[in-house]
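Supplementary Note 3. Input sequence used for the single-chain structure prediction.
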Amino acid sequence: LVASATPIVLNAGGQVEGVHISSRLDFVPLLPPEALTEYYRARRVFDHMLKDQAFEIRFRLDDGDLVMFDNVRLLHGRTSFDPAEGLRHLQGCYIDIDGPRSLYRVLRRSSAH
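The predicted structure, written as discrete structure tokens, is reproduced below.
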């Protein structure tokens, strides 16, 4: 799998719209040396933020639990576990955001009448 993405995506208003952090997506843009130095400085700051426990929420999912989130609006991961204590089964399901957004707009419009 080969892919690339801008790590932080901003919308037209300059607000964060999405974050793409993955070893599969890690790339360094072609920049002049002085800009590249600034890029690496910013990446180090961002990396420290990603590892800061102040931004971390941990919780345990039990059998039958479901967690749902927008894959580009929430950074997520999993902690290690001891297989001697039991099995872990994770099932991923991905949907295209356009369908739910369209449905939301249709339902919002119809409920306004």
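The beta strands are 8-10, 16-19. The mean pLDDT is 86.
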